[in-house]
Amino acid sequence: MRVSRLTLPVLAVALVVATAPASGGAVESPVESNPVEWREAFSPDGTITRVAVPVAAEPRAAVSEVVADVVPVQQTGPSDQRFDLVFVGDGYTSSELDTYHRHVVGKWDELSAVEPFKSYKQYFNVWQVNVVSAESGVDNDPALGSARDTALDMGFWCQGRDVNTERLLCVNQAKAAQFGALAPEADQVIALGNTAKYGGAGGGVATAAGANAQAGQIAVHELGHSIGGLADEYDYPYDRYSGGEPFEPNATADPSGAKWSRYLGQTSPDGGTVGAYEGSRYYRYGLYRPTENSIMRTLGREFNLVGREAMVDAFKTKIPEIR
């Protein structure tokens, strides 16, 4: 495989405190004494929820310089005309880079088997950044309190910050993003942990267990957000929505579903018929989704017709050949 070696200084990154929207769509004031950030948590049965985890007491300092080999897994064209997907690994030692490569290829194969990625696979560049860790594995595996010396500080129970959600596999977002930036371009960074235990998390850098066959679906869901601008279609944890019309293409406050009227009554790839199904975008009532159960609601499903259209439209904005 052709390998290029690039270096990039690491910049200081400020940690932003996220607050939960109130039931009417407003934003609550930050609680200074107990700031939290929201992460998507994924269950083996496909269920997706949002979990509030305490913000780390202080951001971990990034190393002064990041150095890693960048391996092109798939390179189909110039980055300004392609979507660049970048994998970074954590808990892989120098002797485990072949294992890491197999994990990357496996996750890409799983992702690119799902439409519309399958039909547009040739318009993606896929990069593997060979982040080398001092020790193999991730924190809190096999049990809470187990520690590993790794490059990206990845760990279950969200690095020990959420003792209620074992499957929440969090990473030092700043470090992961800096390593991801070693690739020629990064439209989405996915961090793979060297573990077979099921886990992952959403965020600016999505995470997944590298050796777990089910965890690849997390990347599919997260690319729905980052490429298609799609809303989550699950209805947890809030009750009734009373705000304005959502900006995402697959969520509406209109019970008629007029936002996607051209698809109403049509059979959707995720099963069932396009309509207006109540419960979406974290609210049980007052917001509607196009279908009963797409990938934006449950892992292992397909994108619905509205979601597929949004994804393809996003492809067209960057890829001249398909405009």
TrEMBL record:
Ranges in a coiled coil: none
One family name in Pfam for this protein: Peptidase_M64
Superkingdom of origin: Bacteria
Stated name of the protein: Secreted protein
UniProtKB keywords: Signal
Gene3D superfamilies, sorted: Collagenase (Catalytic Domain)
GO molecular function, one term: metallopeptidase activity
Organism listed in the record: Saccharothrix espanaensis (strain ATCC 51144 / DSM 44229 / JCM 9112 / NBRC 15066 / NRRL 15764)
Protein's UniProt keywords contain Transferase: no
InterPro entries, per the entry: MetalloPept_cat_dom_sf (IPR024079), Peptidase_M64_IgA (IPR019026)
Signal peptide: 1-22
